[in-house]
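To the wet lab folks,

You asked to see what we're planning to order before we commit. Fair enough. Below is the target structure as tokens, and below that is the sequence we designed to fit it. If anything looks off to you, flag it before the synthesis order goes out.
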């Protein structure tokens, strides 16, 4: 995969503003929750770059492999708290907003688990990761190496 364009070289001032703004979102939210949200939105958007980055970040923060693997089926998987489920449902709805809208039932679950300020922080975080996904997918960006599997001789 070769990048179509490096936005950091093409528009460094704008990318610095974008990076500074988006890394500031969600200061009162748990780090593990933020990583789950970033991974989930990136799964929906098919963003290999962000999946690579945020699964690694989640592991560094102590997230289990099992929960990372189950995240694509979080609705049916045990092991996610009510707060995480509310955040993931909100992530799904806003990432798919053109078709999913933001159903009242999803918002009611969000409101039951998050303060008003946390709702805004989470929504900004979801907007930010969707923006990063669009930059990475649009410009074919991928940072970091991917190792080919080692195959044993037969």
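Sequence we intend to order:
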């Amino acid at each position: 995969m070769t990048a179509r364009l490096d936005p950091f070289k093409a528009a460094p001032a704008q990318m610095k503003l974008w990076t500074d703004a988006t890394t500031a979102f969600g200061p009162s939210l748990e780090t593990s929750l933020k990583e789950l949200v970033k991974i989930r939105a990136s799964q929906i958007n098919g963003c290999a770059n962000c999946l690579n980055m945020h699964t690694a970040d989640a592991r560094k923060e102590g997230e289990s492999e099992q929960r990372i693997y189950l995240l694509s089926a979080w609705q049916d998987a045990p092991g996610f708290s009510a707060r995480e489920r509310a955040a993931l449902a909100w992530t799904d709805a806003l990432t798919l907003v053109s078709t999913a809208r933001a159903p009242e039932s999803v918002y009611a679950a969000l409101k039951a688990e998050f303060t008003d300020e946390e709702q805004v922080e989470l929504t900004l975080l979801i907007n930010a990761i969707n923006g990063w996904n669009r930059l990475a997918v649009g410009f074919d960006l991928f940072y970091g190496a991917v190792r080919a599997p080692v195959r044993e001789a037969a």
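Structural context that might help your review: The chain is about 65% helix and 0% strand. The CA atoms of residues 95 and 139 lie 19 Å apart.

Thanks,
Computational group
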